[in-house]
Amino acid sequence: MKKYYLSLGVHEPVYGAPTGAMKPLARRIKGNQALAEELYGSGNFDSMYLAGMIADVPAMTPDDFRRWMAAAYCPAIADFIVSVSLAEAPFAQSLAAEFSDSAVVTTAAGGWNCYEWLLGSRPDAEFAPAMVQGLLERVVRQCATQPAVVQSAMQRVVVAIGVSYRPLHTAALEAATTLQASLGAGADAHLLAQIAQAATKGRVGFKRRHVRC
């Protein structure tokens, strides 16, 4: 596990604790925000991950998430710790928009990843169709010029729209086709194909019950 974490851009200190092994501990201490802050501030990847699992999201402010995102030194932290926790906050959409506009690559990827978690878990009624359409248009327009980690996050948002947001399933499918043509080898064909697969299997509109572990 340590080797796997290191392959994701994580650096020392890191133990390599499997996330599944943390769950029993997380259930006992969940909601302890003071402890979550200590764990996240340690700089140890395993501890930071546990911090995300136990964070008391309703007690966190936008500035708390800005601080956490600023300390996210690699995409694995920005996505699997900060963005998934942010997706449970009432202000998640506005902060995802702020992060996705950032000039800091990890932060921008984290913002796009938060959109993915949101669209894949919250009711369609929580999203303005014009906003979601704007995300698709922005991805098609900007994706090819972005760093690889941001490209990947953008493509996952298109998939989340196509699979989980019924009103724009067809538009997302068209965007995926355009992306495959414009990105060439940079397009994640397997990922984008999930939109068509969801339609074939009758799973358009699928929503996750939980975002955080």
Describe this structure in words.
This protein is about 65% helix and about 0% strand. It has about 210 residues and is mainly α. The relative contact order is 0.10.
Characteristics of this structure?
65% helix, 213 residues, single chain, mainly alpha
Number of helices: 12
Low-confidence stretches: none
* Helix-strand makeup class: mainly alpha
Major sheet: none
Q: Could you give the distance between the termini?
A: 17 Å
* Rg from Cα: 17 Å
> Which geometry do the CA atoms define?
globular
The SSE string, one letter per element, is HHHHHHHHHHHH
Query: How many β-strand runs?
Result: 0
Topology:
Blueprint: H1 2-7, H2 19-29, H3 33-41, H4 45-54, H5 62-70, H6 75-86, H7 92-100, H8 105-119, H9 129-142, H10 148-164, H11 169-183, H12 189-200
Helix pairs in contact: 2-4, 3-4, 4-6, 6-8, 7-8, 8-10, 9-10, 9-11, 10-11, 10-12, 11-12
